[in-house]
Automatic annotation (TrEMBL):
<dbReference type="InterPro" id="IPR041698">
    <property type="entry name" value="Methyltransf_25"/>
</dbReference>
<dbReference type="InterPro" id="IPR029063">
    <property type="entry name" value="SAM-dependent_MTases_sf"/>
</dbReference>
<feature type="domain" description="Methyltransferase">
    <location>
        <begin position="65"/>
        <end position="156"/>
    </location>
</feature>
<keyword id="KW-0808">Transferase</keyword>
<dbReference type="Pfam" id="PF13649">
    <property type="entry name" value="Methyltransf_25"/>
</dbReference>
<dbReference type="GO" id="GO:0032259">
    <property type="term" value="P:methylation"/>
</dbReference>
<protein>
    <submittedName>
        <fullName>Class I SAM-dependent methyltransferase</fullName>
    </submittedName>
</protein>
<keyword id="KW-0489">Methyltransferase</keyword>
<keyword id="KW-0949">S-adenosyl-L-methionine</keyword>
<dbReference type="GO" id="GO:0008168">
    <property type="term" value="F:methyltransferase activity"/>
</dbReference>
Amino acid sequence: MPNSTAPDVLGHALQAYLNGQKKAALTVHSNVAEDEPLPASYFFRSLWEMPQLERTALEECRGRVLDLGAGAGCHALELQSRGFVVKAVDVSPGAAQVMEERGVRQVACHDLFHLPTTDENYDTILMLMNGIGLVGTLEGLEKFLAHAHKLLAPGGQILATSSDISYLYEDEEGALVLNLNGPYYGEVEYTMSYGDEAGPTFQWLFADATILQDYAEAAGYEVDFLDEDEQGQYLVRMTLRA
């Protein structure tokens, strides 16, 4: 469940933006790259402000949708406008409150591994903005793909984006320099800060396409890669085998 003692930096930034502070921005710190600003406005983007991968994913949604890591609800709101029944989930209590204020009809605050299973399952699980990252590690990916069996209706699908970040480990000649005895190179540690607040460190997974396919097929899914952008981010569909 969400850590109620940790500062909800994402929620505070989103609430500030919703309340008129249009320049509100998070700072993202990681163990693989320089600090980067993340404007809160990005979480409020309209359909035509979304990258093509996200627009494609929305076109591929079907049936009842579970939107994981929903942020300020931009995907859930777009799907609602198209007549979909959507449940939007985020670990941030502030984000959940923002989604409710913006008109998302079904909102819940959970982490990925405590999603309640119900009698009414989902036809689509949506995980955008490098959403596979929510699982944290390869171990977490295996755990989530198993849990998703209980969440999906027969023949249900997971639509997710991820990236191969091996380019961060290339030397000047373009050869990969990896510690083969260490953790998988796509397991990254992040912290986000907003103003004087720093959130807890969390793990985020960037899964290369080959390893994602291996894990998904081992967990009982058919895998289709639907699209890729110029930055190497890809959209994948994982369909539960009958």
